[in-house]
Design goal:
Layout lengths: L1 H30 L3 H11 L4 H9 L5 H32 L27 H24 L6 H10 L8 H12 L7 H14 L6 H11 L12 E3 L5 E3 L7 E7 L4 H5 L1 H10 L6 E7 L4 H10 L6 E4 L11 H4 L7 E5 L5 E3 L5 H4 L4 H6 L2
Parallel strand pairs: 3-4, 4-5
Antiparallel strand pairs: 1-2, 3-6, 6-7
Helix pairs in contact: 1-2, 1-4, 4-5, 5-6, 5-7, 6-7, 7-8, 8-9
InterPro entries: Redoxin (IPR013740), Thioredoxin-like_sf (IPR036249), Thioredoxin_domain (IPR013766), Thioredoxin_ResA/DsbE_sf (IPR050553)
GO molecular function, one term: isomerase activity
Organism: Dyadobacter jejuensis
């Protein structure tokens, strides 16, 4: 039996390599294809290894128990790749200014989400599921924001999940994913994460996911308000080294960006207006930290956009270890990210408002008075 199972698993792995090669070659062009071609692409993932799958089903030397394990193992790739494809389609839509369809009652929010009881405990499956939920969560929150819904993020997502009856058995899992999701990318906010975990714990006091969520919170403990800043070393446009700590004694607004980041560059017109507004405030410094790997491209961008006033530095692998990189020190998974450091070198927030948002209020003025 062991030899039979070992041989089958080996053959399944060979087929998975073929399927992965096919995915790598066809995914990008299939994302923007017609509906028929998209479906043809998804159907093609099911055709790999048909003979082997039939052999497993018809082999009487394999017990029903092990037969089901092998079929599940075989099918996992097909299911996760469909989820991966659906995620890429949604991301592509959002990047092109379109939206995922969400009605006013949120009744169809999770209509295309696949949840399989046979795979829910598999780490590979749960990773793909988590990734699949990202654009769905984002679009629900965007809808909430755009329509001025007063209910909080946690309650709003929870309402969407509760309304979908096929998710009844997975509410706890999905809400845990949501709380974890809100800790990532530009959403990182220690106080918000504490609030979300408390809400989750109230709903699911015995949840097995609480330890993992609290572990995430520990990771961000050093970045909460009032903690000492994580110092940054970078090079200026002339190649001279300088540090964030060189600006201690000032309120420092840090802009983490890159020339290839559209949203980062899109904020620069507002950055120009913001620096002009505070040009008579010597205690406020604007620091732009580029994460470009191409130093020459960064220099050319700054030469072309000299109206962006402030201190400019670059961090890349030419001179800096990964452990000292701003994205590592401040747990940044997506840019732009904005950070505020007070005059004593302590963190005001590791997830500050964008320049376009700061222009509409006097938040920086209130910090300058401290």
């Amino acid at each position: 039996m062991a030899l039979i199972l070992g041989s089958i698993i080996h053959n399944i792995n060979l087929i998975e390599r073929e399927r992965q090669k096919y995915v790598n070659e066809n995914l990008s062009k299939s994302i923007s294809a017609s509906s028929l071609k998209k479906q043809a692409y998804l159907d093609s993932l099911m055709q790999f290894g048909t003979a082997l799958k039939n052999q497993i089903r018809g082999d009487n030397s394999i017990s029903d128990h092990y037969r089901q394990i092998l079929i599940n193992y075989f099918s996992l790739f097909e299911i996760t790749q469909r989820m991966w494809f659906d995620t890429q389609v949604d991301i592509d839509r959002l990047n092109n200014g379109k939206s995922i369809v969400i009605d006013s009652t949120l009744s169809n929010t999770f209509s295309d989400l696949s949840l399989h009881p046979n795979y829910i405990d598999n780490p590979s499956y749960t990773w793909y599921l988590s990734y699949r939920l990202i654009p769905i969560f984002d679009e629900i929150l965007n809808y909430r924001f755009e329509y001025g819904v007063k209910i909080g993020e946690y309650e709003y997502i929870k309402g969407a999940i509760v309304k979908d009856t096929k998710l009844n058995d997975y509410q706890e899992l999905l809400m845990a994913f949501f709380v974890a999701h809100m800790s990532q990318d530009s959403r990182m906010d220690y106080d918000l994460e504490v609030k979300l975990i408390n809400l989750f714990q109230k709903d699911y006091p015995q949840s097995k996911y609480l330890k993992g969520l609290n572990d995430i919170l520990k990771d961000y403990n050093e970045l909460k308000t009032g903690m000492p800043m994580k110092d940054l070393e970078m090079r200026d446009i002339n190649g001279k080294a300088f540090k964030l700590s060189d600006l201690k004694g000032n309120l420092v607004y840090i802009d983490v960006w890159a020339t290839w980041c559209g949203p980062c560059v899109g904020e620069f017109p507002y950055s120009v207006k913001l620096t002009k507004r505070y040009s008579n405030q010597p205690d406020l410094k604007f620091l732009y930290v580029s994460v470009d790997e191409d130093t020459d491209k960064w220099k050319k961008f700054l030469e072309k956009n000299s109206q962006i006033k402030g201190f400019h530095g670059i961090q890349n692998s030419e001179f800096l270890a990964d452990s000292n990189h701003v994205t590592k020190l401040y747990k940044i998974n997506g840019i732009p990210r904005y950070i505020l450091i007070d005059k004593d070198g302590k963190i005001v927030t590791a997830n500050a408002k964008r320049p376009s948002e700061l222009l509409s209020n006097n938040y920086l003025d209130s910090l300058l008075l401290l």
